[in-house]
Design goal:
2 copies of one chain form a homodimer.
Chain A lengths: L27 E3 L10 H10 L13 H11 L6 E4 L1 H13 L6 E4 L6 H7 L4 E4 L19 E4 L11 H9 L6 E4 L20 E6 L12 E4 L2 H11 L9 H12 L1 H24 L3 E2 L6 E5 L5 H10 L2 E3 L11 E4 L3 H16 L2
Parallel strand pairs in A: 1-11, 3-4, 5-6, 6-7
Antiparallel strand pairs in A: 2-8, 7-8, 9-10, 10-12
Helix pairs in contact in A: 1-7, 2-7, 3-6, 8-10
Chain lengths: 355, 355
């Protein structure tokens, strides 16, 4: 690769690598935390209706209807809601909007691996605070003295939830810096920090429709916070891309925010499947962390994670593994349907018996 | 606005302001260079088909099918094609990927007003080179000694096209810096620089489906260049947002790239309407620049642009005006249908007669 024409600030970057999207063969896909159930029929109907001649026109750059629906859902005012192209984009915009060069941003060493990528992209100082041995958060290390903090709740890839009290303590102890809470997985059993927003003007909460609303393919995410924080995100967005959400996504997102019944039904199904799968994996000897997300984080004492992952792939099941210190033997297993989880468990059994 | 929690680098930004998207009443909308014709029926069919249960899955982060279709269209290899969320996002990513802090980027003073916004957002030095009095490009001022150049061809908001020879001279004279050619409007009568890509490894050409393919509402743009340049854009994109294009946009974009017949038909209709409207406006006493875009740039010697714009608005017609030195009396009038342009001309006549 000839990087002669690359900007000096990107030559050393290592981009984020998303989970594999296989094109060649059909897998049971438990590697990217997608929802096994399709989006609500109302959402698909709204998306198809939006795919009409009006696509010749720009979308609403302010996403007013979608923001109103989310404001209603979360009990906020529309000016407290920012919408973007999936929570990845929203997180990127928040990093740029809230964190300043020369001021250290902190986040755990084991968490969503995109955070250090954003920090490096934007030339931010950061420190990865080691989680405790049991993957709990060393809250005291997040209490002030830094230029911002990012907490994923429940955490990825461990699935572990933070008590709301911890988020409150962190927000309280950082009155001069923004605390970004990434709640991509919150609907599967953790407690949202949204009710703290009106108390803490430095608290921003990021969410997505990719997981609990089955819309990974539609790219819908948001940030919630004080109107002043949200204005900061808008300032960056409007200096980069006026229209990150297309007309179909806006319509689908609004319908998804409004259809609470389907949302409740599918997320509860996934949580029930998760508990059954966790029990089954524990029977097979796996160490499985309690999860409040739509995935399990599990390791087997008798089999390296790498071998398990490859054995599963050979048997048509994709799971994710992060080749990083402390967690290289863990599999992050997305929750599929009961049938898919049963196939996963049977494949694990076969691999373990074959050793 | 309390900017206490904003990053030090965004506090002084002035974001780009897109043209108005009216919500309250129905206007003849000639203010944002949208296409008056709907997208091809094949595109709408592909978009609706994509709005199915598979939206639960992430889109292809590499947009392989769309890139293959565009590579075929432009006679390039897929690794020479980058796809993003509209050409605004693509331009932003290119500014970050190719231009380095401390090295001056040059572009005209009268051009797409997003360029200085990107430069300020990313802390880049830049110089706005004054266009000649007749809005032609002072090519000699773009010949080297800088950290990058951006040329919009045809230029916005003037509509004036560059001869390909000028682009070649600029690319040739800047062997150490990237020359970014923004061809958002090229399909309405200018000559594309794409055939120069294999000759100049420093040449990147940006395009969009918002104008000539009637897909402003779908957010589809691209950059074309050497594989090494495109890898640089991918490096930034993959450090920011793995999936800027949703599944519906990918499907719609592919269908649009493949349907050349509809594309040829509608762009020729628009060019014919443009010439009729230009003639009609000249009859009314307007100074109208020759345009190779889907808009006209026109001023009237007897009436300030501000009054014309307001008078048109009062009569239900939106046009765009930029309150900047040298062009504050010009209206940028998007080409609508023949009927819409006739309504515009009648409204202008009424305003001028009423003075």
């Amino acid at each position: 690769m000839d990087k002669r024409y690359w900007s000096s600030r990107i030559r050393a970057l290592e981009p984020y690598v998303p989970g594999e999207q296989p094109k060649d063969r059909v897998f049971i896909k438990l590697n990217t935390n997608e929802n096994p159930y399709p989006p609500s029929p109302r959402v698909l109907e709204a998306a198809r209706r939006a795919a009409d001649g009006s696509l010749r026109l720009y979308p609403d750059p302010e996403a007013c209807a979608l923001r109103a629906a989310l404001a209603e859902l979360y009990g906020l005012r529309p000016e407290q809601v920012f919408c973007g192209n999936g929570s990845d984009e929203v997180l990127g915009l928040c990093f740029y909007a809230f964190f300043s060069p020369g001021k250290k941003v902190v986040f755990p060493d084991i968490t969503y691996s995109f955070y250090p990528v954003y920090a490096r992209l934007f030339g931010l100082d950061f420190e990865e605070i080691p989680l405790n041995g049991d993957f709990t958060l060393p809250v005291e290390k997040f209490l002030g003295g830094n230029g911002g903090a990012v907490v994923c709740n429940p955490n990825a890839p461990t699935g572990r939830a933070q008590p709301l009290e911890n988020i409150r303590r962190i927000a309280q102890a950082n009155p001069d810096a923004v605390v970004l809470v990434d709640e991509a997985y919150v609907d599967f059993g953790a407690e949202s920090a949204v009710p703290l927003i009106d108390e803490y003007p430095n608290l921003a909460v990021v969410g997505t429709m990719s997981k609990s609303r089955s819309l990974a393919g539609m790219r819908l995410g948001w940030a919630l916070g004080s109107a002043d924080l949200i204005a900061g995100v808008n300032c960056v967005k409007n200096s980069f891309n006026s229209y990150p959400l297309d007309r179909v996504a806006l319509a689908a997102g609004q319908a998804a925010a409004e259809d609470r019944e389907y949302f409740e039904e599918t997320r509860h199904k996934i949580m029930a499947t998760r508990e059954r799968a966790a029990a089954r994996l524990r029977e097979l000897g796996f160490a499985v962390h309690d999860s409040s997300a739509n995935f399990l984080f599990a390791a087997h004492p008798d089999c390296p994670g790498k071998d398990l992952q490859q054995g599963l792939r050979d048997r048509g099941v994709l799971v994710r593994r992060f080749d990083r210190p402390r967690i290289e033997n863990y599999l992050r297993i997305s929750i599929g349907t009961d049938e898919e989880m049963e196939a996963l468990c049977r494949a694990c059994e076969e691999i373990l018996n074959g050793r």
